[in-house]
Amino acid sequence: MYLPTRHRQQDPRAMRSLIREHALGMLVTRDGEAPDADHLPFEFVEGGAAGLGLLRAHVARANPVWRRAGQQVLAVFRGPAAYVPPDPREKAASGGKVVPTWDYHVVHVHGRLRAIEDPGWLLDFLHGQTRHHEAGQAHPWSVAEAPPAYIDGMLKAIVGIEIDIGRIDGKWKG
């Protein structure tokens, strides 16, 4: 990512906050020689080998992305974004030497992909994700409401993924 110094976000808390508030990330992997992108809701967790955190998600077992475990990957999170027209006063003062632009906040996360097939890990992850996302609902649903045999079947149909963050870059343009 092109990242001029004036747009570099240095605050790790701001970058973690963007990830938490805009959790649907784009995971970029390699499928052979070609790049491939999957859009997944991620959870940010403190920790990781470098202390920069972990990203966690789950995918359908039929999705081949989990078989790319071991790859260095990129996860992209987009925050607020907006078209910005030229300011009329600047236009008048500069003799028309202005252009429109686009302001945005984005975080790029780099790390190694890991696949997790452990049913206990997956169930704990799903309980946590469900609690988090259902908390604001008028009638929150919980995993415990579904028949255990159904949940067991669903657990066999998914794979957890985790990215141990090795580098995180934030760009706040505007």
Structural overview:
It is a single chain. The chain is α+β, with helices and mostly antiparallel strands. 24% of the residues lie in helices and 42% in strands. It has helices spanning 12-21, 88-93, 119-134, 148-156; strands at residues 8-9, 24-31, 34-41, 43-45, 54-60, 72-84, 101-116, 158-173. Strands 1, 2, 3, 4, 5, 6, 7 and 8 form an 8-stranded antiparallel sheet that branches. The model has no long low-confidence stretch (mean pLDDT 96).
Mean pLDDT: 96
Structural class: alpha+beta
Can you count the helices?
Answer: 4
Q: How much helical structure, as a percent, in the residues?
A: 10-25%
- The SSE order reads EHEEEEEHEHHE
| Gross morphology | elongated
Number of distinct beta strands: 8
**Which strand-content bin applies to the residues?**
35-45%
Low-confidence region ranges = none
Largest sheet, strands/sense/barrel: 8 strands, antiparallel
Give the radius of gyration.
20 Å
Ends apart, CA distance between termini:
16 Å
Question: Would you summarize the structure shown here?
Answer:
The chain is an alpha+beta fold and 174 residues long.
Characteristics:
alpha+beta, 174 residues, 8-stranded antiparallel β-sheet, elongated, 4 helices
How would the blueprint of this fold be written?
Blueprint: E1 8-9, H1 12-21, E2 24-31, E3 34-41, E4 43-45, E5 54-60, E6 72-84, H2 88-93, E7 101-116, H3 119-134, H4 148-156, E8 158-173
Antiparallel strand pairs: 1-8, 2-3, 2-6, 4-5, 5-8, 6-7, 7-8
